[in-house]
Amino acid sequence: MTTPLVPSITDEQLADLEKQCEKFAGFAVNSTLVEQLISRLRAAERDAGRYRWLREQGESFQWYNITRVDPDDFASLDDCIDAAMG
Q1: 29 within a domain of the structure (yes/no)
Q2: Domain range holding 64?
Q3: How far apart are CA 62 and CA 31, in angstroms?
Q4: How many separate domains does the chain show?
Q5: Which region, left, alpha or beta, applies to residue 49 given φ > 0 means left and ψ of -120 to 50 means alpha?
Q6: Would you say residue 5 lies in a domain?
Q7: 0.70 exceeded by the pTM?
Q8: Is 2 within a domain?
Q9: By the 8 A CB rule, do 31 and 22 touch?
């Protein structure tokens, strides 16, 4: 397994960041924007995890289960990969 270019952020770190944002309510910090960024980061972490898992499967993986998914239906593709990941 290779080391990712950017280390993953843990759910605990994101939860801590959310708590910290609550302290800034009423200040010039846009907490809604920070919450949106956290949500996007969580989604990116899930996508990165799928990519790393697929990459690590190499030639031994039975790709036909994933290639039968409609390539324009990304949610279905994500669900299929998630199911294969267990």
Answers
A1: yes
A2: 11-85
A3: 44
A4: 1
A5: alpha
A6: no
A7: no
A8: no
A9: yes
In the numeric block, the tokens 């998914």 are attached to 69
28 in a structural domain:
yes
What digits encode the pLDDT tens for the residues 6-64?
Answer: 677 778 888 887 787 777 666 666 777 778 888 888 888 888 888 888 888 777 666 65
Give the 3-state secondary structure of 7-18: CCCCHHHHHHHH
Give the alpha-carbon dihedral of 81, 45, 60, 80, to 10 degrees. Answer: 0
pLDDT value at residue 1: 47
Mean pLDDT in residue range 62-80: 71
- For residue 66, what pLDDT is reported? 65
d(CA 53, CA 51): 5
How would you write the chain as a 3-class SS string?
A: CCCCCCCCCCHHHHHHHHHHHHHCCCCCCCHHHHHHHHHHHHHHHHHHHHHHHHHHHHHHCCCHHHHCCCCCCHHHHHHHHHHHHC
